[in-house]
Design a protein that fits this description.
The chain is of the alpha+beta class. It has one domain: Glutaredoxin, CATH 3.40.30. It has 5 helices and 10 strands, in the order βββαβαβαβαβββαβ. The strands form 2 sheets. A 7-stranded mixed β-sheet has the order 3-2-6-5-4-8-9. A 3-stranded antiparallel β-sheet has the order 1-10-7. The longest helix is centred in the N-terminal third of the chain and has 17 residues.
């Protein structure tokens, strides 16, 4: 299990636009139609990464807790499915259903979206405000597979709570860590 840290996209960066296939309903979706009124959490994940598998229940819980508060969640998989067939779109759909995702799980076949966001690992988190300006890029929390720390989502939740409550988000942000995105 390779450990790759996320790249720290500069705060204030405007969210790059995209239009990708939602693997659950087989429709193309754009950032503009999926964004939240208060904010948007974009998560680069995949099906097979043990780091993502470790946090999957928390990802579903985040969406349940924050969509009603105006922060929409969007998951994107950019992995090379030719060399990692377990991340193929039909299996993404199954994974989304099995894990109770109430957010779209999009397929970035060309990997252009991952490159535009400078995503490096799974999971990789980017929280944008209502104007789609980056306010948080970092880890979910300190939990990793096997380290014994419970998955709480405390870091991302602190940023999401601050965003919802119009408070300052701590600019001291720890990078996420996980498996590297499987580039073509």
């Amino acid at each position: 299990m390779a450990r790759t840290e996320s790249n720290m996209l500069p705060l204030g960066t405007k969210a790059p636009d995209f239009k990708l296939l939602d693997t659950v309903d087989d429709e193309m979706k754009s950032l503009n139609e999926l964004k939240g009124t208060a904010g948007t959490l974009i998560m680069f994940i995949c099906n097979h990464c043990p780091f993502v598998v470790h946090v999957n229940p928390q990802l579903s819980q985040l969406a349940k807790n924050y969509i009603a508060k105006g922060i929409n969640c969007i998951a994107i998989s950019s992995n090379d499915v030719e060399n990692y067939p377990q991340d193929a779109p039909h299996l993404m759909k199954k994974n989304a259903i099995d894990n109770g995702y109430i957010f779209p799980y999009l397929y970035d076949q060309t990997q252009d979206v991952a490159k535009a966001y400078d995503a490096a690992c799974t999971p990789d988190f980017f929280l944008f405000d209502g104007d789609l300006k980056l306010v948080y890029a970092g880890q979910l929390d300190d939990s990793r597979p096997g380290n014994g720390i419970p998955v709480t989502g405390k870091d991302i939740r602190a940023a999401m709570n601050a965003l919802v409550n119009n408070e300052t988000i701590d600019a001291n942000q720890k990078p996420s860590m996980g498996c590297n995105i499987k580039w073509k």
